[in-house]
Amino acid sequence: MRTHSSRQARRPVRHRVATGATAAFLGLAVAFAGGQAAPAAAAESSTLSGIVLGVGANETQRTVSWYSSADTAQKVQLAPTARLTGGEFPADSANFDALGAKNIATSGGYNRSAALTGLKENTAYSYRVGTEGNWSPAYSFTTQDFEGEYDFLFLGDPQIGSSGDLAQDQAGWQDTLDVATKANPKAEILVSGGDHVESANNESQWNSFLAPDQLRQYPWAATIGNHDVGGKAYEQHFSTPNTDNSGALYANGNPASDTSGGNYWYIYKDVLFIDLNSNSYATSQGGGGDAAHTAYVTDVINEHGSEAKWKVLVYHHSIYSPASHAKDKDNKARRVDFPTTFSKLGVDMVLQGHDHSYSRSYLIKNGEKADPGEQPGAADVYPGPGGVLYVTANSASGSKYYDITKPDSSGTSGAGNGADPLNPDSYWYNSVQNQEHVRSYVKVQVRDEKLVVENIRSGSCDAPNSQVSKGDWCKNTTAAQPVGSVVDKVSVHPYNGDGQSLQVNVPKPAPGEFGWTIDGYNGLVDLGTAKEENGDHFTASGKINPILVSDTRRSLSPWAVSAGVSEFKDAGKTFGGSYLGWSPYLLDQGAGAKAGASVPSGYGGKGDGLALSRGLGSAPQGHARGTAKLGADLDLKIPDSVQKGGYRATLTITALSS
What we know:
Layout: E1 2-7, H1 21-32, E2 48-55, E3 62-68, E4 75-80, E5 94-97, E6 99-102, E7 110-116, E8 124-131, E9 134-135, E10 139-142, E11 150-155, H2 166-183, E12 189-192, H3 203-209, H4 214-217, E13 220-221, H5 233-237, E14 264-268, E15 271-275, H6 289-304, E16 310-317, H7 329-337, H8 339-344, E17 349-353, E18 358-361, E19 364-365, E20 368-369, E21 380-381, E22 389-392, E23 419-420, E24 423-427, E25 430-434, E26 440-446, E27 451-457, H9 466-469, E28 486-492, E29 514-518, E30 524-529, E31 531-533, E32 537-543, E33 547-551, E34 559-565, E35 568-570, E36 573-575, E37 580-588, E38 594-595, E39 614-619, E40 626-639, E41 646-647, E42 650-657
Parallel strand pairs: 1-41, 1-42, 11-12, 12-13, 15-16, 16-17, 17-22, 21-28
Antiparallel strand pairs: 1-30, 2-3, 3-7, 4-5, 4-8, 6-7, 8-9, 8-10, 11-26, 14-15, 18-22, 18-25, 19-20, 23-24, 26-27, 27-28, 29-33, 31-32, 32-40, 33-40, 34-39, 34-42, 35-36, 37-40, 38-39
């Protein structure tokens, strides 16, 4: 009697480790396990409003803030968008408990905020706020690569309500965000220049500011303007990371008062952002003044500056601007207090608002033009040691513009507002000044070897453009200067010292793969002719064709290869696969492989043999990458009641990996 065993595959077969959405979610569940919280029962239904997505401490985090009409325990529920079914969140969604307090009387209700941590890159997420039975609508955002180049958008002074036409101010603000995000859908953060509203505690104005859904889709990095500082609504609406709310960083020195204040910082990929409350500038007001800010910036850069390639400061009051506020006493004071410290600390760029016009400075070092020969409007600038670029954003809503003012004879350094020798109509410190009474925004491209700064038109003379609609002039020509056209562009090339700098980009390593192949041209294993033993059964033996396992995954995840045999068949005649046993071994060691346990033939009632899938080899978590060759001796015992014939069976090999 001849018996044969054959594999299911007749040529090499490779199986890759599972990747993509399933593997990404498993990592999210682990990362968020610590953030799970039991749902809190709401004592009553609550109206949820003012939801805004904020920046987190780094690119793996976000914050979410909102208002609630009731003082109930609430949370943010988060899940990868791909796992929502029919808009419903999965049962194992991550939950992040919210903190908050009662709002001031003029705002009404309560404020809530929560930090979302452990986000994965290149993932679309959906989130909602509230509690079981009382959820807000769901909103979504998408993370991108956590390393490398990216773009962010800087938006100046929406100041909703300042024109007196709340609806048109909101429409202009909405239109700028529509234009900017449509043109730059992969912009990763929106950075504020301050003055979100006209009146600090006017919730109708705040509702109009927060109306665009982009503020729930892109993280907003808030900045306190002089129109925001006079109430608590700014702090109630925005939660910021690494925030220092000490008295020195409040204009009146009192964080418990009904005013907003504080400084904060965060790192987003290769940029360290530091945001200052520039409303606190004089110790006579009660706060720590500009000295407190320079001390804060010094401490943050000394501690975290080495963690980023670029250092960007953000505050509201522009110290180098071209319009109505250029000669303000407080800005002249800051123009003396800030620049030397910023130059000494290696700050690359300062983003500012307040003057409702656009400007970008010459490179400024220690309060003076760093290079007297730098030309107006240069397309490329090279800071050298201590050179800092200062940018002022124009109005993003069209609610208010300030016209450019004329230089005077007060000097061409420090606090002076003298004329630029190369361009007498401009201030000495400004390379470019622009005011068309047209909405615009600033796009910053963060690249390995440069920062690219562009001021881009987001509107025209046409509505929504509140100040122009009320009869003010506008010199924008839509044919020559359409929406989306560039007003100004400059590339800032970093200073790399006196020697030659070397740069190399290391790409994200390939994840590797796990696979197995049958070693041999043909999957057939011929066990020859069975031999009769003891007059009551037959025996046959052989070896499987070796299985070559390769594991190059960086995750060093466990793997296992197993096999089970079908019935042996010859036309209509059969006998069970349980009569086949084996003894696995390693032909070549590698990939952390360990041979599986021996399994005896099931003849004589000794078990199921290989009729059940059995382990051929495996490796634990953390094993070394590499290859291994697995083999096994086969032991077949057949009852003599089996009819004569040539029998074949299929040995099905299965590889499992996580």
